[in-house]
## 1
Amino acid sequence: MMLRDFWDGLPVLFQDVIVLAVLLSPLLAVGIFLLRGFAPWPLVRAVIWRFRWANAMFVGLIAISVGMGISLIAQERGLRQGTAAAADKFDLIVSAPGSEMTMMLATVFLQPTDVPLLDGETYAEIAGHENVDFAAPLAFGDSYDGAPVVGTTEDFVRHLSDNRIDGRIWTATFEAVAGAAASVGLGESFTPAHGMGDEADDDAHGSAVYQVVGRLPRTGTPWDRAILVPVEAVWRVHGLADGHAPENAGQIGPPFDPDYFPGTPSVILRSEALWANYALRSEFTRANETMAFFPGTVLANLYRVMGDIRQVMSIMSIVTQILVAASVLLGLFILTRLFRRQVAMLSALGAPARFVLAVVWSYAAGLLVAGTIAGIALGVGATVAISRVVTARTDILVEATLGWSEIHLAAAFLAITSLLSLLPALASLRQPVVEGLRA
Amino acid sequence: MEFPLLVRDLRVTGPSGRVLLSVGSLDIPAGSVIGVRGPSGAGKSTLLYALGGLLPATGSVRWGDVELLEMPVAHRTAFRAANIGMIFQDFLLFEELGSAENAGLAAMFAPRQRRAAVREAAADTLHHLGLTPGTRSVASFSGGERQRVGVARALAADAAILLADEPTASLHREAADALIDDLVGMARDKTRTLIAVSHDLHLLDRMDRVLWIEDGILQDSVHDAA
């Protein structure tokens, strides 16, 4: 118990370094035991150079195996962090009852879906709650050049961008603020298409022309590709009331008049007080009326399911590593037979068994270390490349980097295989010297 | 240190039980230069390896006060490292290393305090044999030069016993004659015991005695040089 408390009290970095040292300790212990008092490096170098092509292939196979393991772990973690970061600005979402996952995908990740709308009365109740700092309705349905055109309010745009808008926020109904990755620039105009993707109708809103007056900084979320416009504009373009009574024509943003509120699939709520968010979720979770949820909680549930899958993947990965270790062992048996004569000659010249063992083991360990280091580099390279592809395709900023888990995995692989490589070294010692000299 | 050789009832058998080598009695005074000849496959190299303690055998192989066959493998290995230099027909060098590292190979496993001396001795022997100790790969050396490196390696630890297996077989005549001069000369200079298996009459001519072996049996332990 005391040991556990002591361990838990250590800084995380220190814990990781200790785990790494423990994992590498068998390698170091064997190395120190075998190499103590000897200087076999020229021979090890010579053997590595003599069979350089076979050795290079062997190192390459180890590198691919280690790299794949590392890449999988780093990618999974990067994706988890990326999706969590994407949901960061969405504290609480209120929508019509249904699937939280569907609503989260629609609201946070801008995946189009048909959902029931919340009416004006409900919105007014939400927006008017004393603990709500802002309640932003959303309006989907249009797009431009593949990017979703999303109607919302100024408060949400400022919240999303941390108030760092290049240009300015809209002051007129048909002004827009483009996401960092949207295909329209500051000062440009565009006409939205109705619908998304292949089904988008470019001519449906021919008379509507938006002008881009502001641009958001990169947020690392699918909202980077979106073009944000006043929610009134989306409603008006679709021939609906624009949320305001005729005497308030031209008003942009809240308050909205419930009688002229066309409905919204979801409302993004923001409350400065953490406790208030929980109270609001409880208050607006009403059977058959509204559903309130934290996107972070939905993601956490998703990660829990993914965690099970991850465990299965980990077991598969361990089985794969065992198979690779077995292949490494077999490969080392074959490679050590290539210099059987040299080993026999060393024994004939009076080299102690430990020296012969040190030469063969150092050779094997050298290949394993080179393969593992190359594997780490390969894994990092693959992770960066895959992250870029995922980011480009989903707009979720996936920043997969080399973490301690990957380093520990590589170190464990190295420790186990370097211990296993003692077997071919011992086997080469057991070969009759004269047979070796005559080989 | 001097090591006279006494062999009694030495037998080496193969896996099938066939007798590969049988030596009833053999006495070689320390500092002798001995040749071993016989037909191919007669057991010449087997005799050499048995005298070096490299083969499981019965009987007695006594170098001075040391009964080689009764020693554990590790002790035999240590005895070889300290007292026996081996020279092989096809040199058995590390082709990727230079002459200095090949000749000074024993320094890699010698006690730290002896390493410099072994390297120095290897370099001196290389100089004596007309080679410059260096890092240029021995792969670029001629056969004669390579065998000289092999001889320097055998002598680097100041071995009192030299066991040479067909040392001139891979060399052309001129190189072989030069090597014979060097090998025999260096053995006699320091009264080392040299036992050389060979078909080379030029080498056998320079021996004190030549042993004849046939079908694994040392038939005539005192045989005039041809």
## 2
Amino acid sequence: MQKFQTLTAVAAPFPQRNVDTDLIIRIERCTGMPKEELGKYAFEMVRFLPGGAENPEFVLNQRRYRGAQILVCGEFFGTGSSREVAVWALASMGIRCVIAPSFGQIFFNNCFQNGLLAIVLPQAAVDALAQEAAAPGAKPFTVDLEAQTINGSVRFDIAPRNRKMLLEGLDEIGLTQAMEPKIAAFQAADRKRRPWIYPS
Amino acid sequence: MKTLFDKIWDQHLVEDLGDGVHLLHVDRHLMHELSGQRGQVELKKRGIRIRNPELTIGSMDHVVSTVPGAKGGNFPWADKMIESFRAEGKRTGVKIYDIGEDGQGIVHVVGPELGFTLPGTTLLCGDSHTCTHGALGALAWGIGTSELTHVLATQTIVQQRPKTMRARFEGKPAHAVTAKDLILALIGKIGTAGGVGYAVEYAGEAIRGLEMEGRLTVCNLSIELGAKAGMIAPDEKTFAYLKGRRHAPAGALWEQAVAHWRMLPSDADAKFDKEHVLDCTTLAPQITWGTSPEDVIGVDGRIPGNKPEALAYMGLAEGKPIAGTRVDRVFIGSCTNSRLPDLRAAAGIVRGRKAAKHVKAWVVPGSWRIKQDAEAEGLHEIFLAAGFEWREAGCSMCVGVNGDLVEPQARCVSTSNRNFVGRQGPQARTHLASPATAAAAAIAGEVVDVRSF
């Protein structure tokens, strides 16, 4: 998995509440398209007008936010469907960090499986960052995962395991497979406790 | 001192990874041909074998055609996906319930129907509505492709322990107020982010009064509450529902399992991190008006003005009664409301009546078995005589990936779970409601209070 340590990049304000994963990527795009091609379909329902032209009002179509790698989002970003394709689509368009007051929980877990940093901050702190990103002549943001800061001053909390996974680019399957003896021991004891769980 | 959630979580602990993160055993895993197929491909690419193929089953639901008599997908890519899922299941020893087979259907319908879902189990699936299975007293939630691959490889999941919430549904709901109305009312009250960070236990007189199918509907919408999981304590109804089902334990194992299951309900003095109470006695049938499940009112209510963008998308005006809004499509189906009692409730409204001429109404049973049982009761004849379509089992128009879509700007009263922008098709306008309310809308040609039927 791609490591995440420090990122300095343009941040785009996207304060809409309840942005669901259906909006991030339509279900028709979840049918086997290679991950790296998904970016052009991210947010397609709002990014393009019905005729296919770019919607000039959509934030990531505005010149200053093209190439943004940080999204400052509204409450409950990534709600809804479990489709990990939503995270792949964001990653494919270059997004590496999403900041919001809260996230859909499956989406949140999916982010950390793909080297994308999801940061939860109180609404007021997110509002302030969104304002900063929207201000004329806004500078790129710097997200430092090691120090757990945004622009040197805004501190964020993160679960230690998620932090370590991203900093070191760890693969969860490999880590768990290394605990195979514990899994085998659990099942051996559990077969006695709850034999009906295991078809013979 | 322990909640139902605590008991199940603690019984599945393989390893404490620190800071509230635990490695849990996964007792049951469900796959469908959309997310499951992707997981199979990822696993194969990495050269990893499935650790416990006997603890996973699969079914075809998302991309299958629901056209009467269909035996595959509606598109070549869908047929390819179905074939790949089928072949990989065979190669790895995972039982796949195939099209036209007893056991095929929406994963969240067939899991309980087959007795694969059991009380006290951890159950995962690459699908957000996996929370449905909590209705049987399981701890169940949806996962993405990476976590799905992890489950196949290790039969475990790494997870942060959520907090606990209890939602008590007090009092007896009035006539025509169904499980769907109860849970929509709670989402309206606490919002779609109201459950973020929590595993929710549904309790109270109104929940205990529900049959298993109604409880499945309640738990199904836990994800629309933002919750990690939703669950209901198992009781005699749960045991009676499960007894004799294909994957359920039998004989001495059944007795042993039931004894274990009786110990699962939350202790009387168990503490929850949060409590909500909903008075069910005054509720009207519910219907959504906006583009989030929290945008919900009683069907006798007026359209609020607090979300102008949602109203613009939905083509509605603030202050007007929701009843009387003209409807183009009606969809009765999905993992929320496609079970036999749902179809009976809809048929009860439809019997002897005709759908309005301008309404295209569909009934899509949740499983192959439900379709057979409904036909044995003659329900399909009631729907067909009224001008409804009676289709093959699948997810269909809830998510539309098989091509079952609502036309742009058309208005659909749907028994599904999401009224998001574009969910049922680009620019489609969705109103979530119960099967009875949806059936009534098809007859009236507009949103209508089913209590007047």
